[in-house]
Amino acid sequence: MNGTDFTPVLVELATGVWRLRGKLAANEPDETENSAKLMRSLKRQLTSMADALHDAGVHVQDHTGEPFDAGQSVDVVAYSVSSEVGRETVVETITPTVYINGNITQRGQIVVAGPDAGQAPTPDGAGG
């Protein structure tokens, strides 16, 4: 490379790939022949871009579904109470954490849900 710092571009590209992957997973079109062909093509391109980023040392971390602990290198943008969780849990990743060569270059932005205060915990950590 010519000494140019491509970090901001890599972070933006990694975030865009992450968003596209999530949208494709959530919005599978009707399985007509043309839409199925388009989806296969888009998935191949997305996989190719994600692999290129990985090979360049870029790692994208989606926190959705992970337990939340204070001190994580993320920004909590919203907090809610839910009877669906037995402990603080990341229920949505707004922006993923992006690492380049193992170093955080973008902190994830997340939404956390905590258990309802009236919900008695069970030994396995789930509410009961």
Describe, in plain words, how this protein is organized in 3D.
The structure is a single chain. By secondary structure, the protein is α+β, with helices and mostly antiparallel strands. The chain starts with 6 loop residues before the first helix and ends in a 13-residue tail after the last strand. Strand 4 (97-100) and strand 5 form a beta hairpin. It has a single domain (7-115), classed as Head domain of nucleotide exchange factor GrpE (Nucleotide Exchange Factor Grpe, Chain A, domain 2). The protein is built from 2 helices and 6 strands, in the order H-H-E-E-E-E-E-E. Helix 1 packs antiparallel against helix 2 (33-55). It has helices at 7-26, 33-55; strands at residues 58-61, 74-82, 89-95, 97-100, 103-106, 108-115. The strands form 2 sheets. The chain has a 3-stranded antiparallel sheet with strand order 1-4-5. Strands 2-6-3 form a 3-stranded mixed sheet, with no helix packed on it.
